[in-house]
Write a structure and sequence with these properties.
By secondary structure, this protein is mainly α. The protein contains one helix and two strands; from the N terminus they run αββ. The longest helix is centred in the middle third of the chain and has 32 residues, at 2-33.
């Protein structure tokens, strides 16, 4: 009975702690998939105009 009541709390804590890490990597992956490059210092996606 104790494990059933504690399991959701532990799962919630794991998700809360992992979210920032996973969110950043999902944003990086989306940037690269869209053809951009990720600037880690500025923490932003950049697109280069290749019309030369």
């Amino acid at each position: 009975m104790f494990a059933i009541s504690v399991a959701p709390i532990v799962l919630g804590l794991i998700i809360a702690l992992a979210y920032p890490y996973l969110s950043k990597h999902i944003n990086i992956d989306k940037c690269l998939d869209d053809g951009g490059r990720f600037n880690y210092k500025a923490n932003s996606c950049e697109f280069v105009d290749s019309q030369n």
